[in-house]
Each structure stands twice: as C-alpha cells, then as structure tokens.
Amino acid sequence: MSFRNSTATDYVEDVSPGSGALPPRAWYPASDAGSLSLNGSWRFRLSPTADAQDDAFAEPGYDAGGWAEVSVPGHWVLQGQGAPIYTNHLYPFPVDPPRVPTENPTGDHLRFFDLPEGWDLSDGGAVLRFDGVESCARVWLNGTDIGEFKGSRLPHEFAVGHLLKPAGNVLAVRVHQWSAGSYLEDQDQWWLPGIFRDVTLLHRPAGSVLDFFVHASYDHVTGAGTLRVDSDVDGRVSVPELDIDIATGESATVPVEAWTAETPRLYDGVLATEGERVPLRIGFRTVELADGLIKVNGRPVLFKGVNRHEWHPQRGRALDAETMLADVLLMKRHNINAVRTSHYPPHPAFLDLCDEYGLWVIDECDLETHGFTEQAWRDNPVDDDRWTPALLDRAARMVERDKNHPSVVIWSLGNEAGTGRGLTAMAEWIHGRDTSRLVHYEGDLDCRDTDMYSRMYADHAEVERIGRGLDGGTHKRRGLPFILCEYGHAMGNGPGGLADYQRIFESYDRLQGGFIWEWIDHGIEDDRYGYAYGGDFGEELHDGNFVCDGLVFPDRRPSPGLVEYKKVIEPVRIDGDAADGTVRVTNKHDFADLSALDFEWSYQVAGETVESGSLAVPALAAGESAEVKLPEPPVATGTGETQWTLRALLAADTAWGPRGHVVAWGQFPVSGRQLPSFAASAGPVVSDDGTITLGPAVFDARSGALRSIGSVPVTGLRLDVWRATTDNDDGAAWQSDIRYGALWRKFGLHRMRHRLDAVEPAGDTLTVRTRVAPAAWEFGLVTVYRWTTDGGRLRLAVSVTPDGDWTVPLPRLGVRLGLPAADRVQWFGGGPGEAYPDTDTASMVRRWQSTVDGMQTPYLRPQENGARADVRWAELGGLRIEGDPEFWFTARRWTTEQLDAAAHRTDLVAGDTVWVNLDHGQHGIGSQSCGPGVLPQYQLHAGPAEFSFVFSAVD
After folding, report:
1. Does 5 have pLDDT greater than 50?
2. Do 123 and 206 touch, CB atoms closer than 8 A?
3. Active site residue 864
4. Of these residues, 185, 364, 416, 464, which one is catalytic?
5. What predicted TM-score, i.e. pTM, was given to this entire model?
C-alpha cells in the first residue's frame, strides 16, 4: 500500500517549463495603460517540504494573521527565514535529474490588493507579470489555480482579467527552493529562493500592445538608419525628431546618428495602437560578423568588459533602480565598455540603463549545468531531448524580453553547461528569430553553433597564439573572432597581469577583448563577520570565499583591482618619454573622437606639483595619434626629481561623470631621483649596561637587535620573506599548475628561524650576521645587517645571499619592524592605493598621505594587501625612512601572522604596535584563484640582493 499527501507537487519535478503562462514578449517599463505594483510586504509561511501544506491558503478568506511578513522583491533566506547556501558548481542536493530532495523549503506568499479606481476590465483584461522567482512557483488568484513556472531569472505573465474584482483580491504564490529547474541554474552564486524581482498587474485595454520588435539598423557608408517595428497588434510608429510617422511593419530610412557604447544616441518614439501608447527608446546600429571580426556600424569593437552577477549585500539579487544605476555609473567612470550578464538575463531595467549610458551587452540565458562535470557530464540536461522544450523556453523568454535593446549585441546560450543537442536547438532558434545579433557560448569549442570563439581563463601565451592564428581547431573556428568571456579572476588581492593581457589584445585584430570575472563580491552583510561568505551559514557543501571575486566590494566601493583595470583599459594612451619636449597621444576609442576631453599638464618637483596648465590636443578621431608639444619646464623651485603628469579629463558634465573626471593619465620623468647621501662618522660604542650606541640608535649588545632610534622605540627589526597568502597565491585546488601558496607553507616560509651568527661592532660599523631558514629544510638566506651613522641619521645596509637549493620564489624580501605609535603616514612614491609587480599600472608617483588604517585594503578574507610601490621615502611614528633603491612600503596594526590566520575582517583586532614592512621585492599577484599564475617576469626568485634604508627622527 502506498500513501501520498493530497497536495499536488508533480510539477516541481516536471522537466517542462511550466503551464498557464502567456507566450513571451517584449518588456517595456511604462505606457499609458494602467499598472499596479504588487511589490511590498507579503504574508509568508515557510514549510520544510513541498507538500507539507495543502492549497487552502490560496482560498479567499483564509486567515493568515499568524504568518510572518517578507518584503517582495526579496529572498526569504535573507529575511530571517531559513539560510542561504553558496556553492560554485556542486549541486547542494543529490544529482538525480529531475528529482529533488524531500527536504525542499517551500514558501507560501499571500498578497491582498484592490484594483485602482478607473480600471475598466470589460473592454480588455489584465496581465499578472512575475519578473523573477527562484526556482519554481505555482500561482493562484482569488482561489483559482492559474499556472506554475520555472526559469528563475525570466519573466512570466498570466492572463487574469477574468478573475479580478474591484476589491479584496487575493494573490497566492507557492515558491519551492528546489525543482527540476534547479538543475539548469547551477551558476556559481548563492542559492536564494524567493520572489526576488517585481510583481506587477498590467491593465490591458482592448487593442493594447502585445509583442513588438524594433528593427533599427545603421548603414555606416551612407549614415542612414532604417526603422521598422513589427507588432502583433497593428498601430503606428512615430519618431518626431526624425519626422517618422509610419504604420507598424513599414520601413523608413533617414539620416541618423548611430548608437554605440561610446556615443549612445537614442531617439524617443512611440508605438501607438488602438488601446495603448508605448514609449520607445530607439538606437540605430548594425551588428555583423564580417572579415572574421565582430563589427558594429562597420568597425571592429574591442570589449573592455566585466561579468556582472546581480548582487546587493542585504537584498541579494533583489536590486532596486538606484543600485543598478550605481553599477552603470561605476562602470562608465572606470572605462568599462561592456557587460556580460553572467549567467542569466538581468533585471530588464539594467538594460535600459545600458542603452542610455552606453555599454555593450552580451545577454546570457538563464542556464548552467556545471555540476554535471562531476560525473563526466553524464545525464546532462542539455544533451537530453526531454529537457529541450525547457531550454528553448528559456532562450525565447530572454530574446523576446530583451530584443529591443540596442545595447544587446550578442546573445549567449548560457554558461558551463557542456555540449549537446539542446544547445544546438537554442542556437538555431535564436539565429532564426533574430538575425541582427550574434550568438555566443564558451563551451562550444568547435564553434558549431556560435559566431565567435570564446574561452575563459586562457593564459597570456595561449591568447597570443590564438591572436596569431596558431591555435588550431576547426576550419570554421580559425576564421572567427576571439573573446575571453572570463579572465582576470578578481578574487581578493588582484587580479595581476591585466596590462599584459591588454597589450596582447591590442596587438592582434582577431582578439576582441574580454570580460573580467567579476563585478562584485557576493558578501552578505552579517553582524558576526562584517560580510559572510560560503560556509558561514552552516552549509553542508560550500566553496568558501570563492563567491567574493569582484572588482567592487559588496558595498560597491572600488577595489584596487578596479582602479588598476580602469588604467589598463583607458581609452586614451599618453606615452613617449617627453625627453624631446613632446608626447604621443593616441585615441583608443572605437568610435568617438577626443572632442569631449580636455587635457592638462602638471609638473612635479620631489612629488609636489609646482605648476600646471592646459594642454592643446587635437580632437583625434578614433584610432588616430598625434605628437603633442609640452610647454617649457617650469623653473625648478626646489630640489629633487622632476616629472610631468598629463591627464585627459571630461571637458563638461556628462550623463555618467562630472566635468574634470579623469579618464586617462600618464607620467614622464624629467630628472632622476637623487639617492640619499650618507657619510659614516662615529662608530658603535659598547656600554656596560648591555647596549650598543650608534649615533641616535641603541642596540642590544648580545643580539644586535635595534631597540630605538632617538626617542622612538623599535621592535622586531629583521629580515622578512612571508606574506599572508592571497587567494591568488593559494590558487584553486583543481588546477594542475604550481600553486606557490601551498608550496611556501610546505617549505616553511611562514615560520622562518633567525639564527644569530655574530654581532661585530668594529670601526664605523655595527655588523650583525644571521642565517634565516625554515625548520626541516637545508636551504636558507645568509643575511648580514650593517649599521652606520652620520651622527644624526642611521643607515641599515642589508645583504642577502641564498644558501642551498631554492626551488620556489619568495613571497617578499625586505625587513619588518614594529613601532609603538603611528597614525598619520606620508610617503613619496606610488599611490594612492596598493600596487604589486603585476598590478602597478595605476600607481601614480607623487607625495601622498593617509592613516595606517586608511592604508589597509579590506578584502573579505584577509590577506596580503596595502603595499605602496616605488617608495622613495616614508614618514610615520616619528621616523623618516629613505630607501635605496625604491621599496614597497606597508604599515598595519597587526602582524602578518595575525593577518594570515584571519578568516574574516572581524578577526583582525588592532594591537599596540604598528608593523611596518620595507620590501626590496614582492612576488607578483597573478590570477591563479581561477586562472594563470604570476608571469615569470613578476616572480621574486631567491638571489643575491643588497638594499639599504636611512632612518631619521622627525617631529
């Protein structure tokens, strides 16, 4: 005998996309037809299984007075109901498609509403629209079951006019966390159930708009645009600025200004049918695959892009208009020109912003089945005909919703879903439905279904081979353009090597750029940790902080990685050496000239600007260069090295940035640095109290340890080679190449022992001889400290000689010391933010000031950070430190060991000592958290080294 709950739940595990929903159609934000937002506070009940409750809650008159309340849009697990789960690609349930666990958190939602006054449903109807629900929903209105659906990041509409009443309407929605659709949504993000996008009731008068397709092409030869709007309901299309007034289905060709991401020209129009007027925002542009390249309006484009998940640290994927605008403005202000909507169509309002402000968009379908890689893609839904209708439904809902956006230039079938017949069916349908755009999918290595060759995380050498056409592959693939749909994994400190990628992109026409992974850290605001990541909610399976891999922190504060990327991809190159009084300015835009920019020069002496002015630069067309003459150098008003700094700035306020916003810059040395002069005078004096005095310094006579410089106590000065490993140092466990973070720990570089061999006060020098080495290994570093004084200052010369067989590079090489009190910091060198050997493009040399706390970069998982590069001198805690040669400078209120042990920001507790690192060398960063490691030229190999510092007391 078999027993089963009477609540019908078969639809949860049905591979079909659902039932009852209307065909997909174009999305538009407003019209003169009425609408009622159903966002707000909803009654909510959480059950542990899909069938724990019957359907009685959907009936009018049901008493939900004891239920909780949740905000819609929203995720119930971020509102105190259950907990979020993060996995990169592992399904957090047994893989047995299409079956899901019995333990299936299910949220019943209730919304009560009245119709607005004046709604007449007798001559038309109404449509209920859900813009996003994860992962499966069943819907009732006034007790009537109207359907169910899957496809979390896609819209679904239902005809409901016949069910509405003027007042007392009851909308009931049952949402299941897991469903058959979950197998298609394994997208390296938090699993967050709920109604997370808008719910809207749309009045549909008789004769109102159904679906429509705006075709707006551009002929780059004639400068003419051709407009045709196909509509399911006859009407007229007017564009007053262009004197267009035509019937739907008819074409008009007129002179226009083209739409591009650099010049996002939109024309306001109206689609008018008998029952509705819909505003249109029309951008004329033509996308094509020509001469083996992705071209827009006849020109190849170079994508300087980013992958963007939707994220807010409090609301998850429930984004408001202000948050979406903040993303677009940040992108534009950091020279980003393209977005891949990883890995699902975004909220449609985001695409409106891309149209308006100008961003190329790869619109990606809500599809990823990455978890099937654990079983060699066996039973992968994209190669199972039973799932093909669901795949086609997802493709159609994306294309039909977003087809009227000029910013969308490429459709993407999805991400990391293997290969199979279902993907081919999607590509064939999309190509048939929309011939005006190209199709992308990274997993199609033979490019059978796609219009471009796409890869993720290919290293620099392979990308260059592809650019040179030496990558092999099918005949079709060799003739296609190439993009890196993901690269520069921005997890923690990094990514490194971006400038090297960009040089390769710009060297070969076939290489059309790439998209950094990714835009934002998916940290969840949390009282315990500041921001929580995978594992912080007791998940059975999780991937830790792999979800924190963005160019901006969860609060949308730019990381050093974003600042570096802005500099690397700046659309104006200012180069040359200025030795002959000229520099070369190149317009690296694809379309725009330089008329929107002003140029200015400034002249620095010893890091301080002594004079500045405007610089005459012609309004170069895209791709053009010119030699620009600099003014005569100002008469020096001080001593020290001199340099030019040139900037390109917005000449006027724009939609995305204020006048004076810096778009690009360059620096050019004129006279070199004068190294600190130092002549040793008095020698060391050994005292009976166990100390050695040398000028302003006091040392321990037995150990040779520095105790103080003048009135400033100093502790723990010694050679340091360890850094708190970065996510990129540690690398990803699945990678086969060398991960140095693990090797450094294996070889004990985090626990180096310092053996004292001799303390030698003789002549004018105090010499301290040591050997620095890890327990259990024979290799080490013979280190000699030589101290001298000129009476008022103290000089430390360090020589390091490797001993034994060093098979790994060093994390860092320099000295570390502790100061008892420091807050304000000044330095002359690179800034304002951190920089490492392969992340220093954005480091501008000048005088800077900060606080010790301000020098920290608050990565969500604490790790090495905050180093300033090319430092000539630094002042803090009553000391001035000058280096020969320039050095990396770091100051923090905790030790490297404490930083290394911390898992969250809140684990770091400021101590009484400020620990200062003065580094002769730093190992590069790379992007090995999910990509290539540090390029050879940025690796810090153990070798003989000599460097010195001069210390002096300052007020």
Report:
1. no
2. yes
3. no
4. 416
5. 0.97
